Amino acid sequence: MRLLHLVNGGEDLGRSRWFWIGFAAVILALVALPLYQTEFEASNASYYLLNIPLALGLSMLWGYCGILSFGQVAYFGIAGYAYGVIAGNLTETSWGPLVGSVGGLLLCAAVGAIFGYFVFFGRVQGWIVPILTLVFTLLLETFLGQTAGYQWRIGAVQLGGYNGMTGIPPFQIGNFIFQGYAFYFFALSLTVAVYFISRVLMNAHFGKIMIAIREDVLRTETLGYDVRFYQLGVFVLAAMLAGLSGLLYVQWGNYITPSQVGLLPAALPVIWVAVGGRNRLLAVAIATYLLNWINYTLSEAGNQYAPVIMGALLLLVMLFFPRGIIVAIAELRWPWRRDVTPVSVQDRSA
Amino acid sequence: MDTLGLLASILYQFGTNAAFLLLAAIGLVVILGMMNIINLAHGELMMMGAYIATIVTHRGIPFPLAVLLAFLLVAMFGAALERVIIRRFYGHELGALVVTWGISLIMGQGTLLFFGPFMPSIGIPGGSFSLGAYSFATYWIVLIGVSAILIAALWWIYQNTRFGLMARATMQKAAMAEALGVNTDRVYMLTFALGSGLAGACGALLAPTVSISPLMGQQFVAPAFITVVVGGAANVLLGAIGSSLLLSAVKTPVGLLFGAFIGTVALLLTALIIIRLMPNGVSFYLQRFTERRVGA
Questions:
Q1: Which of A11, A99, A223, B182 has the lowest tally of Cβ within 10 angstroms?
Q2: What is the pTM of this model?
């Protein structure tokens, strides 16, 4: 009961009965996707879905806690590479992928914690954090790019430089290998689970502290909260969610290259989150799915303008819909709407 | 003779590293210090300057003139950018960061579409000379001098001209400056144009030493921002000098021993440690030190 109350709290879009009916309908449509789409299309849909945890992590970090990070893809890459190395070395056993997944997530948490310690316990000013995350990402890309030689071998796995790491094993539990429709359901259930956990977390006490930090660090501190600790906490959480997306990505594509950690991929999550509406998780999830779909459709059609269009979209959203397009649509006064969703604390951070 | 050559070579490496950091950062420093806007399109403005200089040099215009042209054109572009977009984001630090990043994405990818992935670069002007077994490029020696002159000129502008006075007043308290008749809107536009123009000129100056490509701006991003972060915002010019010297002192030996990439990693680690030890950057301590000296 208490959990239900938290799910339905005011820090995300949609609280009415009709909203939940619509939500259930969308989930149902996604679950029934194999009935009306081919395995190839389902595989594409899994790709759009698997980016959502990363975006939700960035949403919590930026939209709720006011810490902007350009470096979420670094954790995406770290988890992907770690999984590739661990699972690629444990091919004889059936639990290799599971160990690899756990290892990837733990590595993300560890790197995030070390980086976050320096940043947050150093009480770095707000604008320096995104710069440092960006520099970290660029360095990671440079490092991975120069691992082409034969000496960059961990056990049986080659890091492969800009050719990337190939032949990464898919996810597997026991003898069951997640591929095709099975992987689609795996990604879908993880994404929905991450969404609900995030929503509960942001409506719970933890989320209120996040918002308090976003609004006024000093005030939150004088109320007795160790701000540094909470900032570190949400940073590590976001790093692990980005890592989860990275794991799903390599399990989906069996392949990762340093360009996944480059400047262009680093820009995309920020665009998804800004376009959706950074302090509304559902809006971010929807925008992530749609923008990935648009991006894929554009580049599939051989359209080289896709990155420019994405950049222009970001520019327009920042100029005209600073709270996000999806949020703007959701908060329109529809004629049939009786109550206006109570807007929680107004975001003054950005 | 050879120890002298070695010494000169190390000093030369140190100087070029410091000059590179300073040139990569200076446009950014002006905009950040005066306007508190973090311009993530900085690398792309440098790229723009490099493209302008390269194109007009290929057409036979002398290189110094090309640098001047890059300064003027990129400054005009910066002024337009400020009028249309940037001025909506004053006081919104993170918003400005995100929107300038969008600009950088459009500029980088747009250049890629328009000019293709490569452009023949211009050769390094001036020859080289050698001292013992070590050789030195004249152009880099000139660049070291140019970066020193640039800093001195900026210092002079901000301390001795009417514009500098108004800019410093605006920076200190915009509302008060406005009440005293300073057109702060204009000051912001000119400052952004100056910062952009400097980025363009420095991009043009560094153009002969790097390969020209639409995404070349990326290589300046890490060094430029590390320099600014280490420098801090207390006194940006002082900070830029201090941090580029300090970072060069780290990068030169590490880079000589372990290669360029580890040198850059060492830069990031140094930045992290310095931020942990002095969150306000080098400039805060440098300024306090100089103030004490002056006060005593």
A1: A223
A2: 0.86
